[in-house]
């Protein structure tokens, strides 16, 4: 699921577009992403919503799942509430898979 959201969408944003300008991402979300080293839509798309969420949780363990929905919404162009309704299960499965890989030392979330 995570790669689907990043690889299948054409990039129309300049490489350095500020995250706060992305649909559905406010300044607090952008600050959390910046603290995790994610400072552009290009970087967010490259990582995908799930891997980006994991990176944010490493620097801010209090980040809620609403951020995951918003990240996927920023990448896909969907409103975060629509993402939560329609893609919750697949995103949670992808999150569990990446976290499991990281625990085994095989994933990007290390």
Describe the model.
This protein has 110 residues and is an all-alpha fold. The chain is built from seven helices and no strands. The protein has helices spanning 2-7, 27-35, 41-47, 49-59, 65-76, 80-86, 88-103. Mean pLDDT is 83; it is low at 1-16.
**Derived structural class:** mainly alpha
Order of helices and strands: HHHHHHH
Helix content: 55-70%
Sheet of most strands? none
Distance between the termini: 19 Å
Estimated radius of gyration: 13 Å
> What number is the mean pLDDT?
83
The low-confidence runs, each spanning 5 or more residues with pLDDT under 50, are 1-16
- The coarse overall form would be globular
Q: How many strand segments?
A: 0
- Number of H- or I-type helical stretches: 7
Fraction in beta strands: under 5%
List the helices and strands and how they pair.
Blueprint: H1 2-7, H2 27-35, H3 41-47, H4 49-59, H5 65-76, H6 80-86, H7 88-103
Helix pairs in contact: 4-5, 5-6
């Amino acid at each position: 699921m995570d790669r689907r959201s990043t690889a299948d969408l054409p990039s129309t944003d300049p490489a350095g577009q500020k995250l706060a300008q992305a649909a559905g991402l406010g300044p607090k979300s952008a600050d959390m992403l910046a603290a995790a080293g994610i400072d552009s839509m290009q970087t967010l798309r490259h990582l995908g919503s799930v891997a980006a969420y994991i990176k944010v949780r490493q620097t801010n363990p209090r980040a809620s799942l609403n951020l995951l929905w918003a990240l996927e919404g920023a990448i896909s162009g969907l409103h975060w509430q629509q993402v939560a309704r329609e893609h919750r299960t697949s995103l949670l499965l992808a999150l569990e898979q990446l976290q499991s890989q990281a625990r085994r030392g095989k994933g990007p979330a290390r």
